[in-house]
């Protein structure tokens, strides 16, 4: 306990800083709908876009949802960009980024539907969902040659990117501001049930489609599995799902650091709650904070630990280092402490299950049973393509194989030797080894 308290003192200043950044949380209740359309060609180079973003960063915080890094990067690359806003049933106002298919935009008249899957027509609608501590920026930061959103757009898809509640693009709620504890009372469970369902329904309405393709990175798959098992009717709305570095089962590996995280998980939850800390932001201080917890006791040396943590956030990737550090910071985003602690519980239990309040009454109240219920993966009928790296931080090969075994409809699975989870964004071979295979399967898909 003493260790943890010291650590919290280290980490406090960064939380105070994160409060100051919160200003996008506004009072002006934005409804669901499209905010801006920009399909004009932009003459800016990519570097110009970044510069403008940095120069305007201060002003942007106070502006509404009109400009951001993702939109600037898309426009700088000369692709059409749109922002859409979706409100969930529980009041979270989520921003969606879109690179619409130019075939759909030809007459800038959306009512003139192009038939899908025809030569020159739209290949289909695809939703990309980012991982833990990330945002839609992950799918564009590496630029038009290798960013997943761009290569999908080039292949003829109508590309949408979600931003989970609590991330820098989705920090509004009709009833709460991010300063209130109630705003942060969510995990990836709610991101699946609340955010993904609202986003998918909105996209299908907007594009007049029955189903869409889904590509999830890391937590993007955890949330999808939650949705598909808890609300099985969404299985019909997804034709194929591709999972990159999917997180589902945890704790089967022998990683001492991961074991340590599980050991301190309950204390961490209690301590952060006591101190009214509900948001974790991926700053140096937080890395240090988590590092100190995870790397205490029996775990390997501090250096090994911080290396692994750096990898967890993508700092260690060679290509990430090449990108402007400021840009990487802008690509990263905060999460609720509950999101992390919920993952910690999966390591403890080795089950894919709902949040355990570790309190008889609360569990009874929420679940009508003492134990946190497991997600029933036999209800997930969507065909999956799964890609995992052998150098994953949280997930071991055994965890990954457990997911492959328990998902009823795995079409293909591969483990990429030496890859960590950020390789699915930054690795120089990601197009060749992963994206091109996903695109091929989606293009060959017919109902
Ligand atoms: C899980 O779902 C399957 C398929 O709907 C069902 O047959 C099975 O009873 C469920 N298992 C549990 C533990 O609820």
From TrEMBL:
<dbReference type="InterPro" id="IPR006693">
    <property type="entry name" value="AB_hydrolase_lipase"/>
</dbReference>
<feature type="domain" description="Partial AB-hydrolase lipase">
    <location>
        <begin position="72"/>
        <end position="142"/>
    </location>
</feature>
<dbReference type="GO" id="GO:0006629">
    <property type="term" value="P:lipid metabolic process"/>
</dbReference>
<dbReference type="Pfam" id="PF04083">
    <property type="entry name" value="Abhydro_lipase"/>
</dbReference>
<dbReference type="GO" id="GO:0016788">
    <property type="term" value="F:hydrolase activity, acting on ester bonds"/>
</dbReference>
<protein>
    <submittedName>
        <fullName>Lysosomal acid lipase, putative</fullName>
    </submittedName>
</protein>
<dbReference type="InterPro" id="IPR025483">
    <property type="entry name" value="Lipase_euk"/>
</dbReference>
<comment type="similarity">
    <text>Belongs to the AB hydrolase superfamily. Lipase family.</text>
</comment>
<dbReference type="InterPro" id="IPR029058">
    <property type="entry name" value="AB_hydrolase_fold"/>
</dbReference>
